[in-house]
């Protein structure tokens, strides 16, 4: 197994490839503007935002607008507002990113306006950066705060010497399981994915309609999650372009594993995790586990009569490659291109995402995923969990998972289209279509075509 090296914490700030330039990552091609990301017209300021001189802090009080789909975010902002009288932050709720929030944000930016700050999923940060919608924050000293952030979180917003957003929460993977159900069949939490498969066979054989887990075949994020853990690096900025490697050894080994799982019908595919039927089945001891982001704990707490019956273990590992965990989900807070107060916005965001008061407020009021701070997980998360069998699972399990991730992963500037491609491939596999080992090379070629069609310089890894 490949263990995380001590120097991995700095990996995100090293250039990912020879000759990587800030301009190369930001622009890639002038053809990729807001129109190609959200279909909302040409960008109003675009690439000029980060070529212009930095904006000095204001002489007097300022008000920042913050668009996000986090619930009760104003309560978090008000705690900051009460600490000083220079900066006031006003939050406005918008729909989730792909549910209309991104279109709203990008339309406003294209019109020359928009908020000072917006919630952007970590996987979508490159798309927004390449669209010219973000302020590059190292110009305002963001890199000086790197040590205050969890390295896994920081790696999601920093490329080379550029910082494109501030990480707000992440989702390191773990294995959440029904402890009583596992004890009933005499099993133990699987340490490796082959052990997980053996356990899946035992669960399936223990009763009708019992599964170790279910998958939503249309959700393309799961293949990314398991390939990321295996050590795959699908996208690598190099020079002024991108190298695509979606059919390497790690990816194909993962694909072969899941081809076998699906062929042997070892997972349910009729409904995805946390849906209404999933909750009902989990409450009836028909679903053993969920392997996914740490934020899944809050959703699992909705399982009927689940208190005291569930527990948490490390994510199963690949036997001869990869990392302890991977990241599923997570968001950033990004300063938008037309903000007149980027310095003040950065000051607020560093407070919100590293100060204990900010972290505790986001956990309590907004229900964020894993803390982005380097050394503070939140007061509530330091306590044992009654629901999860009295386990102090955040410190015992999630924290090590957060520390053992693939920090070399870089998101591409077309994540929504990537997710759709992967979802189509998974759905086809479940319904008897092409094996995943054949799908990934074809998906790689499709991604290459899309990136070139929008004007990006892209090549497949040799």
TrEMBL record:
Q: Which InterPro entries does this entry report, sorted A to Z?
A: Bact_solute-bd_prot1 (IPR050490), SBP (IPR006059), TAT_signal (IPR006311)
Return the Basic and acidic residues bias intervals: 1-10
Q: Name one Pfam family in it.
A: SBP_bac_1
- UniProt KW Secreted keyword: no
Q: Which UniProt keywords apply?
A: Cell membrane, Lipoprotein, Membrane, Palmitate, Signal
Q: Residues annotated as region Disordered?
A: 1-20
Q: What PANTHER family does the record tag this protein with?
A: ARABINOSE-BINDING PROTEIN-RELATED (PTHR43649), POLYGALACTURONAN_RHAMNOGALACTURONAN-BINDING PROTEIN YTCQ (PTHR43649:SF33)
Protein name per its UniProtKB record: ABC transporter substrate-binding protein
